[in-house]
Structures are given as C-alpha cells and as structure tokens.
What does this fold into?
Amino acid sequence: MKLVGVITEECCPQVLRAPLGAAEAEEMAAALGVIADPARLRLLSLLATAEDREACVCDLTEPLGLSQPTVSHHLRVLAEAGLVEREQRGRWAFFRLVPERLAILREALVP
Amino acid sequence: MKLVGVITEECCPQVLRAPLGAAEAEEMAAALGVIADPARLRLLSLLATAEDREACVCDLTEPLGLSQPTVSHHLRVLAEAGLVEREQRGRWAFFRLVPERLAILREALVP
DNA sequence: TTGATACATCGACAACCGTCGATACGTTGA
DNA sequence: TCAACGTATCGACGGTTGTCGATGTATCAA
It folds into this structure.
C-alpha cells in the first residue's frame, strides 16, 4: 500500500509502453489499489467537489455512511499514498486533494 | 470484479466532477481493482508490447513466473472486465488488448 | 480543572483474493 | 483410437483488507 520508488519520481512507469518488471508492477498495483476502493473513491470525489476544496473528517463520515474510525483509516491510506494532504486546525483535521498525484496514475495508463 | 452498468455506457463516471454515489463508487472500485494487481498489470503490459499485439497463455506463463492456472485465472478476470479479448485458434487461446477499455478507466480520473 | 468535542489508534473478526497442485476438457497429429 | 499438448476449472490454503466498538489523545470552552 505504500507509494515509493519509481512512482515518486517525476516521470512515471508506463504500463503500455514497455514490459513492466516485477517491482514496477508491484508498485503500480499498490498505487492503484489505494483508489480501488469505493469508500476512498467517494472520499476523493467529496474532496474534489467540496466547498473550499477541503473537508474535515466530521463532514465526511455521514455522507459515506461509515464509522468515524473507518473514515479516518481510509483518509490515512490516501494520505500515505500522497493523494490527499492533511492539515490540523484546532481540533479539526482538514483534508485536501493532491490532483497531481492522481494525474500520475492516470498517465501511467496512456497507450 | 464485474464491469457492468454505468461503466458499460458510452460516457463514464467522473470521480472528480460530482460526488460519487455508493453504487457508482462500488463499480469504479471493482473496475480499478481488476488492474490493481501486479500480475494483471504485467499481462496488459506484455500484450501491449507483444509482437503481433497478441499472445497465448503459454507465452505469458514464463515471463510472469506464475503457474499456468494462475495466468489463466488472471486472463479470465481481465477478459470479464473487457480489458482483453480472447480468441481460440486451434489448441491455443490468443489474447489481445482492448485499449478503449483502459481509456474509460483513465478518463474517469480526469479533473 | 472538568467536560465535551474531533480525531487517531488498537484489537478482532469476517470476507475476499492470489496462488498452487490436481484434474478435466478440447484439439491435434499419429 | 490413442497420446500429447494447451487451457480451463476445481478445491484448498494463507495472507490481506475493510469494518467496527472500545479506547487513547489532543484541543477548546466553561
């Protein structure tokens, strides 16, 4: 589930350009696995369309219909993958999308 | 793991455009889950870069370092998702990429 | 200080998934 | 008809993961 190595670099692995090595494939799969989850997709979707492009956990729990620990868990996974940023303000933790990160995944699938 | 409904349509769900519903999110997650696997990514990669844009199972087993049943399983998952096409020729089963299918997933991530 | 609020962490459980060996199926050639 | 080959299917096993309730931690208000 970690996002390190090749994908961290400026240029990204191209699935359809050259045969993927085992390590590259493992990395890409892990990166895609982060967004291959309905709860996390909805979180990205909510953050992308939120009022100020940000939201706290309390605002995300109810629309998802999941418990607070579960939402917190998914946000942590997204943050570790670099797909969202976390900022503590008072007792609230606000999360913002990092669009460039999703772009890397998208561009890995260009023919 | 199935790829039906919205994703089958001409236009596809846009994760970052509007808040995803539960059903849409489930579908997108399933579709992404198909390619969120190192073996399947390498299969797509191998098919994309193969000599005649196609390959039989016997050609794919060795480069992946997996057993024949396992490779067959992954190809079946890819085929059910519409990402590859299967064509029986004699005793060989040839597989080809369906690039438009990957494009749908890619375009679901546009900002 | 105390209580309330927002969030993170922990431990546990059920469900899912990738993998394999064994085996069945279909095609080809002798 | 028979044997060999390429694939698909089956059953089983181990590891991973999404989910929750319970609990811990930090911040703010009174």
Notes: Chain A has a mean pLDDT of 92.
